[in-house]
Design brief:
Two copies of one chain form a homodimer. Chain A folds into two domains: 269 residues, Nitrilase/N-carbamoyl-D-aminoacid amidohydrolase (4-Layer Sandwich), CATH 3.60.110.10; 206 residues, Rossmann fold, CATH 3.40.50.620. Chain A is α/β, with parallel strands linked by helices. The first copy, chain A, has a six-stranded mixed β-sheet. Chain A has a six-stranded mixed β-sheet with strand order 6-7-8-9-12-13. Chain A has a five-stranded parallel β-sheet with strand order 17-16-15-18-19. The N and C termini of chain A lie far apart (58 Å). At the A-B interface, helix 2, helix 6, helix 9 and helix 10 of A face helix 2, helix 6, helix 9 and helix 10 of B.
């Protein structure tokens, strides 16, 4: 039997486009003489459709598209992912299904049994778990068709408080009773830089455990926060990576099952650096947010610091320099070198920039607020006014020219609330909101791997918000190396305070940082969507009560 | 047997406070000679604790508090709600439990079997469903102890696409096999103005179906968006409301079970008007957001329009006039009557106000942006600049005086994106973001039920944003009576477009409104938390993909 794997970038709710992409790949598979072509999870509506699944009209559109794709499957069978209606009188209204389509019909279906409902996943919100397990007999082979999490029943969580076995059943333990020859797993598995190896290990372990090859087909491309890395896997029965599709790209690959059964010529995994993948993920995230919302151009504020410099470099890669515009908005507290560093970067990247001083509106606000603030000391309020004036200017340009404002805040400052709501926290998309400051440096050096793009001075100087004279980030915060270590252990690993301190980290510092994280939930509540590259990013994957006292 | 019902306002994560409230109520129950005192769902941590449940340190605090409360139960038994650890090697790490405590021990426990995972509820994110059902034998009676949703297996959803039976099991069908004498339901059930009667009917139906009295104990008070109405119910075996505790207040009530078994003296339900309850809900929501975050004072922008007028009146009720401050921020487009209406209202409510013209910063922004916008027409960008200048001023006062900015946008404008991000959409809490414009009028008239508080002119004049000359809301939007009808059917009922049009509503209008709703998801993503009073509010209960094309 010959199988094609189609790793595609789908667009949520864009049925015409998704159908076209699927039918084109079916044609390609036929040209490759494939018997079976496999697509990713929920490819028909695009993943994740979220509460669009609550709409009957949306589900009807899925059904129509599935029917049209089935009609297109002449002389070939396709496995697609789509929601289907649960016809039982009880339970959730939908299943998350893998459908085998051929000659105008659904010839086999499997419903996802393990519904991830943690972090960014809410699948039990919509779907009834599948409870019946049967293999699909096709061209003399018995195929165990599973959907993403169905193979993740033994996953390891970063938060050690989670059980090693999150579910009370194991779909493969059920399916293996029917002696499958091949495991197929259609996925929509987002990227997390800390899980590149452990994700591959999930599938390798299953192949080894059951002695059956595993074909995992993942989607690629980004939908708002979530970035899918593709990197679909074909693993032989010894648990070796037999073929791997590229990261963060559409790809198509056909092979004979006899080759994998024979274990012929395993190519092994793609060796890609950690920082390189973070970089690709962020560029993909920016590119797709724009292409899928229909916007082409962006604007951002360039301070001369490393965060906005990195953000500009990523935006230029994603959108092209002609679609990126920068504003330098100095105040009396801006240093000379900041303006020079920003101008140098804009020139290097050939990006249009303007310098707009914030002095006039700052003076105007000072004058009209004087009667209200009479006799009061200048302080954080006035620092915030500067940040908010910059946001007004950036949003004015955004509105006037139809460009999306990119937010340049990093995860370290977002964590501790070191930013101004409606000021530097503004933007349509937070590019670096899941990147700790220490990782920002790594990415900046990666950007500069061949030539100096980000000025060395932006990388080496001490970080400063430049909202008052001689201000440094470390006036208010611990050193970033310490801060990021505490943040990672508290946010990603969810460790208690007493397990974080030690190894040169003082308990008082830990307590102060935890207090800042919790106190500033209200700011993050109103932050833009954050491109997610870690196992725990701010946004929908992390839900905390604003009024809690904890 | 004598039972006390304790309807209390708990604070999430504030273990000392919650423990104190519970122990005080235990003392009161003992003074009332009760054998059993019943508290609400997850009362120990406060509801909803959200992702704090992922933290082992948080769960350990729950366990300690439960133990201390158990020690306090001398000569009395208390039923409390708390997360407990699932000791099975497989499944979610926690149960949502009802624990009967007595003489320092947990003498009985029941785990919630039906875990609501829809709208604002995410319980399967944290909890393993209980699968064993047994009655608690206590003082000669057999008590069927259930937790909130456990009795909601036959609920009706506003979205007709949902099944009438969302779950594949019915806890009461299991428990009734053990012949219980009494059903106890500990709840954390938020208010929704469209479900006041249907919620009571859920419990009445169960009492009638099984011929057993039902005691439902709900929490009261608000936690961020969610407002709990209390209104605990004691329903006799004929399904009559035997006693009802007050709405939106802490309350305590003791009774002899013999009286309810005998059906003595049913008092019936509390008759409260619909608008009156919406009003109480909003005042509760404001009051608790402030008291639980530790803030006392608020600031808001007063335009002379009905939304900010209503918001001010509600804030004065919730926080006291001395804790409320208003800013009038006229521009050249503000009408004379607007300023007068705003001043009249501030004077009537004895609220401190200032008039701060936005002209100076508006001119300053015009000057610095002139080189960038040279030769371009003035338009929405300049309207947005005005709204954003007002936000800068309000946030400056908020920062300087430690007051929370109240957002005054209504649900109709939030739906269609008729508002400026980082402008009039700013604020720490959206008071009216779940109140349609047509309901705003009802609430305003309710505020004026005894005397004119909100100036009649604010109620009767045509709504305008006053951002350009002679602007009216109806320049961009349908009449609010039409708009709100479409919004309700699309958002709450989730009807398809073709089911909304008709009855005087044109399909083109429906399509335009739906487009505006979907297009503006990105604005609502960054909106403040919204006090929820409907069955579908913006915020965590409604999750839509920003990049969808649908």
């Amino acid at each position: 039997m010959r199988i094609s794997v189609a790793q595609i970038n789908f667009h949520i709710g864009n049925f015409e486009k998704n159908k076209g992409l699927i039918c084109d790949a079916i044609d390609k598979a036929k040209a490759d003489k494939a018997d079976l072509v496999i697509f990713s999870e929920l490819c028909v509506p695009g993943y994740p459709p979220l509460d669009l699944l609550d709409r009957i009209d949306f589900i009807e559109k899925c059904s129509s598209a599935v029917y049209e794709i089935a009609l297109h499957c002449k002389g070939i069978t396709a496995i697609v992912g789509s929601p289907t209606i649960n016809e039982n009188p009880q339970g959730k209204k939908l299943f998350n299904s893998a459908l085998a389509l051929s000659e105008g019909r659904i010839v086999f279906s499997a419903n996802k049994a393990l519904l991830p409902t943690y972090d960014i996943f809410d699948e039990y919100r919509y779907f009834e778990p599948g409870k019946r397990f049967s293999v699909f007999e096709f061209k003399g082979l018995r195929l165990a068709i599973t959907i993403c999490e169905d193979l993740w029943d033994e996953q390891h969580f970063d938060n050690e408080f989670e059980k090693r076995r999150l579910y009370t059943i194991s779909p493969m333990d059920e399916l293996v009773k029917q002696h499958p020859d091949l495991v197929i797993n259609i996925s929509a598995s987002p990227f997390s830089h800390s899980r590149i190896e452990s994700k591959a290990e999930i599938f390798k372990t299953k192949a080894r455990k059951y002695g059956i090859p595993v074909i995992q087909v993942n989607q690629t491309g980004a939908n708002t926060e979530l970035i899918f890395d593709g990197a679909s896997m074909i693993i032989n029965s010894r648990g070796e990576m037999w073929r791997r599709l590229p990261f963060f790209e559409e790809a198509f690959f056909s092979f004979d099952t006899s080759d994998i059964f024979a274990g012929n010529d395993p190519v092994g995994d793609i060796r890609t650096g950690h920082v390189e993948l973070m970089h690709k993920a962020l560029v993909t995230g920016i590119r797709d947010y724009f292409s899928k919302t229909g916007f082409t151009s962006c604007i951002l504020g360039l301070s001369g610091g490393i965060d906005s410099a990195l953000c500009l470099a990523l935006a230029v890669e994603a959108l092209g320099n002609q679609n990126v515009r920068a504003l330098l908005m100095p105040s009396t507290y801006s240093s000379e070198h900041s303006i020079k560093d920003a101008v140098d970067l804009a020139n290097t990247l050939e990006v249009k920039y303007d310098i707009v001083s914030i002095e006039k509106p700052f003076t105007a606000f000072g004058e009209i607020l004087e009667p209200l603030f009479h006799g009061m000391k200048s302080g954080i309020t006035e620092e915030n006014i500067q940040a908010r004036i910059r946001a007004v200017i950036l949003m004015a340009v955004s509105n006037k020219f139809g460009s999306i404002l990119l937010n340049t805040s990093n995860k370290s400052e977002a964590s501790v609330g070191y930013g101004t709501l409606y000021g530097d926290m503004a933007g349509g998309l937070s590019v670096l909101g899941d990147v700790y400051k220490t990782e920002i440096y790594k990415l900046a050096r990666y950007i500069n791997r061949e030539r100096e793009i980000i000025p060395q001075n932006s990388i080496t100087k001490l970080p400063s918000a430049e909202l008052k004279p001689d201000q440094l980030d470390t006036d208010s915060l611990p050193e970033y190396s310490i801060l990021d270590e505490i943040l990672y252990q508290y946010i990603e690993l969810q460790k208690p305070a007493d397990k974080i301190s030690g190894n040169g980290i003082e308990r008082a510092t830990v307590d102060k940082v935890i207090f800042m994280i919790n106190y500033n939930e209200f700011k993050r509540y109103q932050a833009p969507p954050v491109l997610r590259i870690s196992s725990k990013s701010f946004g929908d994957g992390r839900r905390l009560p604003l009024v809690a006292r904890y």
